[in-house]
Amino acid sequence: MAAPGNVSKFFILSGIPELEDNQNFFAFPLCLLYVVAFLGNFTILVIIRREENFHQPMYILLAMLAVTDIGVSLTTMPTVLGIFWFNYYRIHLDSCLIQMYFLHTFAAMESGVLVAMAVDRLIAIRDPLRYSSILTNPLILKIGLVIVLRGLCVVFPIPFLTRRFPFNKSHLLTHSYCLHQDVIRLAGADTTINSIYGLVAVLMTKGVDSTFIVISYILILKAVLDIKANSARLKAFSTCVCHVCAVLLFYIPLIGLSVVHRFWKNTSHLLTILMADVYLLFPPVINPVIYSIKTKPIRQKIVKVFSDQKIRTLDSKISVLKV
């Protein structure tokens, strides 16, 4: 272990290299994306919480997905907006490790929720008559607890394994937030243990999860193709559209970013930065939009909420005018 005096206390985060001092150009769009992510996911959470009809497995899992998206957004927001609003690039080592821990933890949780949602769709399509007896609310809550504990425990050693390194080669990170694979790249010591454990952690979470998701959709596709009526077949598969979109939004940028970090180390910084921003910003923004559009009960409830709000606003204005 390196002596504390040899360890750099700060890292320098990256914005968009080609823009240099013109980062503020992206400040408002990024801020708008965060606002949309928070409003969209909080709206889904409030609606599911208030409506008893939504207190069932499919919607509880959707609420879990919204919570993980909010967690990811809250974790990255301070450093991302700090760079693009205030041109502040420095982050303390301990703050970086804390951000790294929660970022990877929420990502692992989101991956677990996506698996649970795939299993939910599989049971709903293959055995609809026993769906409510198999997937009870207590079981879903237990599954949620396992997902949370797995994310917390698997990622827990990573900050401590990283904290022991001296960072005296370079202090410049590739992204506007701290990722494990990006931080250990700057370590002035052998990072084999971190690399192996990081790979094991990825395989234990996203590797296992993606395998189960693929298996679930193979079984779902088989069950859908066994349905005789075309209309029923289309309706059955349409119930999976939202989840398929959520899976693709999560895994495609994640896999691309991992491949770039591990095998294309000399690639353009702009490419890795854009991929990392897509990986973390787009799922929290797009998931609520997709589920609001494609899930009819939620769409109707959102329309009703805003319609009622407009009516109340109009009534209050009329009351003021009468006075």
Automatic annotation (TrEMBL):
Q: Which GO terms describe its molecular function?
A: G protein-coupled receptor activity; olfactory receptor activity
Stated membrane topology is: Multi-pass membrane protein
Query: InterPro entries, alphabetically?
Result: GPCR_Rhodpsn, GPCR_Rhodpsn_7TM, Olfact_rcpt, OR51/52/56-like
Task: Note the superkingdom of the native organism.
Answer: Eukaryota
Domain (G-protein coupled receptors family 1 profile) spans 40-291
What is the annotated localization of this protein? Membrane
Q: What is this protein called?
A: G-protein coupled receptors family 1 profile domain-containing protein
The region annotated as signal peptide is none
Tell me which Gene Ontology terms the entry assigns under biological process.
cellular response to lipid
The record's annotation in Gene3D superfamilies points to: Rhodopsin 7-helix transmembrane proteins (1.20.1070.10)
**Keywords, in A-Z order:** G-protein coupled receptor, Membrane, Olfaction, Receptor, Sensory transduction, Transducer, Transmembrane, Transmembrane helix
Which segments cross the bilayer? Answer: 25-48, 60-86, 98-119, 139-160, 196-220, 241-264, 270-291
Primary site of residence: membrane
GO cellular component terms listed in the entry, alphabetical order: plasma membrane
Query: Is Transmembrane helix found in the keyword set?
Result: yes
The major lineage groups are: Eukaryota, Metazoa, Chordata, Craniata, Vertebrata
Q: Does this UniProt record's set of keywords contain Nucleotide-binding?
A: no
